[in-house]
Write a structure and sequence with these properties.
By secondary structure, the chain is of the alpha/beta class. The chain contains twelve helices and ten strands. It has a single domain (about 40-335), classed as Alpha-Beta Barrel (TIM Barrel), CATH 3.20.20.100. Strands 3-4-5-6-7-8-9-10 form an eight-stranded parallel sheet. Strands 1-2 form a two-stranded antiparallel ribbon. α3 (about 70-85) runs parallel beside α11 (about 290-300) and α8 (about 195-205) runs parallel beside α9.
């Protein structure tokens, strides 16, 4: 047996048993980290973790402070403190800078939150094709962030995951398998923006316990051929990024304390209310850059989910404008109107 064949055998061993034996009972949410009765908690697929339905993404666009400055660090500490107080118990950090920033912000409170982690990212073929470099990335990240383990190691793939070679994907899965068996990662998954590939990979790789992928305001499930069918069948946790389409949903494009702040807050809550109607979604993870934005996002959980006629008409207008006005760098998100 050649090395690639043996690697495939190693990776896929037990896949069928994992899928068949997956239990979907809902754990008691009151036993989760940073439980708050005003927050909703959802099961993260077969990991069994109960994470807040609104959690926090690692990006900090439009913070008016230089990353690493004292003002920046203070902002991240204040935001994370507010998150924990409101029952937000998952943070998704997808680069070395984000991991370091949130590890520092959560110093002394690590046990109060579930940490999603990627240090080196797998978009670089030189990294994706090397088990040793992927392992070293996890080890370096844990050491530099002062962590002994991470709750979710989710390697960031190229947006079009099919652009990875088969060998790169097999290598990534082998590294994820090692991460979990070593105890350095409790659970594993990937982040990518290619629905057909994700649907196929959910069936093929047991290492995909969680996927992190877009679900924007106004995204809808396809009547047939949806990625969600595979996620449901294989009990894969789904964390939705870009709920506000990188701020395109807002009148201010996401600037804090703008003259349109009240309207933007209403749009944010509507987008989250809409997203939480998706039964497959474990959590929506907006980037939150002020304490007031944390409070506003948490408030959305307590509001009525279904829109009345006037709200539905308003939301349709606002999301239609959002899809039309995506900036050039986010034009790819138009493919996520139907998931």
């Amino acid at each position: 047996m050649n090395s690639l064949s043996s690697r495939r055998t190693f990776i896929r061993s037990g896949a069928a048993a994992l899928a068949a034996g997956s239990l979907r009972a809902q754990p008691d949410p009151s036993r989760t980290r940073s439980y708050n009765p005003d927050m909703e908690y959802r099961r993260l697929g077969r990991t069994g973790l109960m994470i807040s339905a609104v959690s926090i993404g690692g990006h900090w666009k439009r913070i008016p402070f230089k990353p690493g400055s004292e003002d920046f660090k203070r902002n991240r500490r204040e935001v994370m403190r507010a998150c924990l107080e409101h029952g937000i118990n998952y943070v998704d950090a997808c680069s070395a800078g984000e991991v370091a920033a949130y590890a520092e912000a959560l110093k002394g409170r690590r046990k109060e939150i579930y940490f999603g982690f990627d240090w080196t990212m797998g978009r670089d073929p030189a990294i994706a094709g090397s088990v040793e470099r992927l392992k070293q990335g996890l080890d370096d990240g844990l050491m530099k962030a002062g962590l002994d383990h991470v709750d979710l190691w989710r390697i960031t793939l190229r947006e079009q995951c099919s652009r990875h070679t088969e060998r790169e994907i097999e290598t990534i899965m082998e590294a994820l398998e090692w991460g979990k068996k070593s105890g350095k990662a409790r659970f594993t998954g990937i982040s990518g923006h290619h629905r057909p590939w994700i649907a196929q990979a959910a069936a093929r790789y047991p290492q995909l316990e969680v996927v992190v992928t877009p679900y924007a305001a106004g995204s809808k499930e396809k009547p047939a051929g949806s990625m969600f069918t595979a996620l449901r069948r294989h009990d894969v946790g789904f964390i939705g990024i870009k709920p506000f389409a990188s701020g395109t949903l807002f009148a201010s494009r996401g600037e804090p304390d703008s003259p349109t702040r009240k309207e933007d807050d209403e749009r944010a809550r509507m987008a989250l209310r809409y997203a939480l109607c998706c039964d497959v979604l474990s959590a929506s993870i907006p980037g939150l850059i002020t304490v007031d934005q944390v409070k506003n996002a948490a408030a959305a959980v307590r509001e009525r989910r279904r829109f009345d006629r006037a709200e539905a008409a308003r939301f349709h207008r606002e999301t239609a404008a959002m899809w039309r006005n995506l900036p050039a760098g986010y034009s790819w998100l138009r493919d996520w109107e139907w998931v």
